[in-house]
Amino acid sequence: MPYYRVVGEVPRKRHVQFRRPDGGLYAEELMGEEGFSSDSSLLYHRYPPTAIVKSEGVAEASDELVANHPLLPRGYRTQDLPVGGDLVLGRQVLFGNDDVRLSFVAGAGVSDLYRNSMGDEVVYVQEGSARFESTYGALDVGEGDYVVVPTGTIHRWVPSATLRALVIEARGHIRPPRRYLSQYGQFLEHAPYSERDLRGPGAPLLVEDDHVPVLVRNRGGLSRLTFLHHPFDVVGWDGCLYPFVFNIRDFEPIVKRTHAPPPVHQTFEGPNFVICSFCPRPLDFHDEAVPIPYNHHNVDSDEMMFYVGGDYSARRGSGIGIGSISLHPSGFTHGPMPGAVEAVVEAVRQGHGATTETAVMIDTFRPLRLGPAARRCEDPEYAWTWARAAG
């Protein structure tokens, strides 16, 4: 995180005695990235966060990923995936590679306490609302929220109804793009969002309980550790590392006179991938602008687009609707449907100078492989829609 935050009670200096009302010492826990050389936060627990009484392995179903072969642009309908489960164990794997795993969840279950020790997560809430609870406190989340969860954060999800969400699991850290930040970490004036747009926990949860199970994912697989005391026994913390929420509606689009490429929509960056937000905005305003994406071939990346709102004019006639996903791999030139350019130019001529689309795009710099959920909800006709529209 680019700025410092204090929640609850903390002592005046770091690593000094901080005593409970009964005279005992609170237990410090430093959560830090990159071997004490990057962002961190210092949490104060009522009881030692190290005390576990049991550990057991948890069996998981195989989420086999297969190559996109034969090479095709592909379309998917998350609307057709089954509903059920919770936001941790109910993840249905769509795509993945060595850097990131992308899953879809549609469920109303309360999740177990969970810690992902393999990397940061971003959960984009397409529909529904929930309370996100963690060692840092609670956050109320809803439609359009990106929930950024740092590596190692113990947390759980408590939906108020069925939650539909895209889950992005990195094999590393996810941060705001470096070009948006000063050398000291402050958002710069040209950035499409700022610190004021980010929501962090405001108060500790202070849960008291014992023998509390927590699911932990690391490179060895999934385990269940039973903690002697509840990990939410934190009375206060401070630092620059914590879960936070950014809503896609707070992204300020960058507009040019002619069409701008996807980097202007970038919202976060991860190891060998980026996350972008396509939001309602004025269309390109040059007198002779073609206000729609041109045919393009990003030779170094696969592009996954999740359509979550409005009308995406470039994909008209392709079967893409709200909740759909398109996957355009390296090796394939993609662009608007035949006739879409002419239709948008005419719409602008008639005074319709804005777009209503909302979409989340993920570009990966290694090929995405296809997971079981993708194979389950694929539209087998998507690849041929350009040719059919042209004919």
From TrEMBL:
Similarity annotation: Belongs to the homogentisate dioxygenase family.
Cofactor dependence: Fe cation
The Homogentisate 1,2-dioxygenase N-terminal domain, residue ranges: 109-247
Residue intervals of the Homogentisate 1,2-dioxygenase C-terminal domain: 272-387
TM region(s), chain numbering: none
Organism: Actinomadura vinacea
Highest rank taxon of the organism: Bacteria
Keyword Nucleotide-binding (UniProt): no
Protein name in UniProt: Homogentisate 1,2-dioxygenase
Alphabetical UniProt keywords: Dioxygenase, Iron, Metal-binding, Oxidoreductase
Family matches, as InterPro entries: HgmA_C, HgmA_N, Homogentis_dOase, RmlC-like_jellyroll, RmlC_Cupin_sf
